[in-house]
Amino acid sequence: MNNADKQYLDLGRKILDKGVQKGDRTGTGTISITGAEMRFDLSEGFPLLTTKRVPFRLIASEMLWFIKGMTNIRYLLQNNNNIWNEWAFKKWVESDEYTGPDMTDFGIRSQQDEEFNKLYEDQMDKFKKLVLENDDFAEKFGELGRVYGSQWRNAFYVNPDTMEVKTIDPLKEAIQQIKENPTSRRILVSSWNPDNYKGHAGLPCCHHQFQFIVREDKLDLVFDMRSNDYLLGLPFNIAGYALLNHLVAHETGYQPGEVIYHGKDVHIYQNHLDQVKEQLSRKPKILPTLKLNLEKQSVFDFEMEDLTIEGYYPHPSIKAPVAV
Questions:
Q1: What is the mean pLDDT of residues 233-243?
Q2: Domain 3-71+144-310, what fold?
């Protein structure tokens, strides 16, 4: 049994056995635990779960979107990645410029009402087309604000002596520190700024902090999550940060070490219970491997065609609604 799937499935069982029922922002309801850790040794294979198909193409294009400092979904749509659509769509349908059918609580209603779902899909198709083809519309409604890409590449701080606002590039500085000062315990990137509290991000950052730690010839990455959707979000997060660690290790000359996950509120949505139980019944397979285009040297130069997964033969996908 591969250790990545084993840890993930064990965590799912723990949530079902020991979790408590809680309400939540989306109105869906969850079963939740407080505090979890998993460790993924990247020498054992790339931790793309095999007990259901996890779409690497979506994970990779999202991670490149973060790395490039982008916050507009147009880049994702150009790469046929729809995982952030709902949060941008919500901004449009709640605006004065929207004149279509009522989309209140579209996330839940689209799963419960077949007739409404057709209306929702029509409006979403219209929305995506406008983002891709209309620059002004994309700038206004495709923009998610200060989400991950902004916080990773264009963070700001206030000099307490002068109250002057300055900006920094945290990811670029972290990579430079790995090269110049590898024993530092301050090689850390935070996605959480006070502006997250004040509505300046389409979705306040869930994986809110990560840290690189050099261990002999290996590069480890520890990432923290304030809130974690077990079924849909966590498999993406594990593979996304594994990809980031591979890329940074490649540029800085280290071997990829461990990716270590710390979850705070880890939950299963009430409308995901059947899907989780289906995944828990499956037997893990051998992990795949990640291949990088070694001609690319900088993390910031990689594109989708430079990333390949080999030997991935998972169980079928498991579909479930997104809580928005």
A1: 97
A2: Thymidylate Synthase; Chain A (3.30.572)
